[in-house]
Amino acid sequence: MGRVSQAQAQENRQRVVATASRMFREKGTAVSVADLMKAAGLTHGGFHKQFASKDDLVDEAIAHAFAEHAAHSAATFEERAGEHEAARRTLIEQYLSVWHRDHAADGCPVFGFAADLGREPDQAARARHVYINGIRNRAARLATGDDDGMAQLCTMVGALALARATRGDPISEELLQAARTALAESGTKQSEPQQRMD
Q1: Is 80 exceeded by the pLDDT of residue 111?
Q2: pTM assigned to the model
Q3: What is the spatial distance between Cα 73 and Cα 87, in angstroms, rounded to a whole number?
Q4: What is the 3-class SS of the chain, one letter each residue?
């Protein structure tokens, strides 16, 4: 079998990063390199030609997931240019949906990588840096008035965690709805004119 061209090698690398991004969000970063390469349709031996270590792949997979989701969020806001509140509500509805609950591999990287990075606080400085910036950027998309969006993001991520943990029971969808309602009310209060207290 001949050598792989540079273009093919780059395409293979991108496929591994995209596959890892999805698998890590769904199953955690403990997924074996062998399983990952198999899912990408490549041989296990090809991994070390592409990556110095699994930690390097984790870094790239996290960066890929955040870039992918940033592009999706930006598209939502571009579709509703000048309508920040409508775009914010759309993001909340999508995030706290049954579809998002049931599709972890395509889901939010803030949620998807939280447990792994929490277990390994000293691991992968680059990954943590990307993760922290991702949190700040997502919160900024939710910001309204004097609210920096952090509490809203915490509500969304927490509700998603609880909904996934209780999937199969009616409480799962109740949790998603409760969070959607609370965030909708929060946005309405922020957009209401503040009454002066003289």
Answers
A1: yes
A2: 0.82
A3: 9
A4: CCCCCHHHHHHHHHHHHHHHHHHHHHHCCCCCHHHHHHHCCCCHHHHHHHCCCHHHHHHHHHHHHHHHHHHHHHHHHHHCCCCHHHHHHHHHHHHCCHHHHHCHHHCCHHHHCHHHHHHCCCCCHHHHHHHHHHHHHHHHHHCECCECCHHHHHHHHHHHHHHHHCCCCHHHHHHHHHHHHHHHHHHHHHHCCCCCCC
Q: Please check whether residue 24 is in contact with residue 61, taking contact to mean a CB–CB distance below 8 angstroms.
A: yes
pLDDT score recorded for residue 73: 75
CA dist., res. 159 & res. 174, Å (int): 10
Confidence (pLDDT) at 106: 93
Give the span between the Cα atoms of 149 and 30, in whole angstroms: 31
Q: Amino acid identity of 97? A: S
Q: What confidence score (pLDDT) does residue 190 get?
A: 53
CA angle 166, 172, 173 (to 5 degrees): 165
